[in-house]
Design a protein that fits this description.
This is Transposase. By secondary structure, the protein is mainly alpha-helical. The protein is 67% helix and 0% strand.
Length: 66
């Protein structure tokens, strides 16, 4: 998971000074990776992330936890 966070979300480049904020953002990124991995479409994590940004219907499908 660290590689995905580093390459796709560029987590190591983040320079958040507030420790609590950094922890919350890190948790949010890990949660996003989990949701993207659970989605059944065969595409890369980066591709799914971009598709969520372009299409709100796709984002709704990814966020559907049930």
């Amino acid at each position: 998971m660290h590689w995905v966070l580093d390459v796709v979300f560029r987590e190591d480049d983040r320079r958040t000074r507030e420790r609590v904020l950094a922890d919350n953002l890190s948790w949010l990124r890990r949660f996003a990776v989990t949701l993207l991995k659970r989605h059944p479409v065969n595409d890369s994590i980066r591709g799914k992330m971009l598709a969520c940004g372009y299409n709100t219907d796709y984002l709704t499908q990814v966020l559907d936890i049930t």
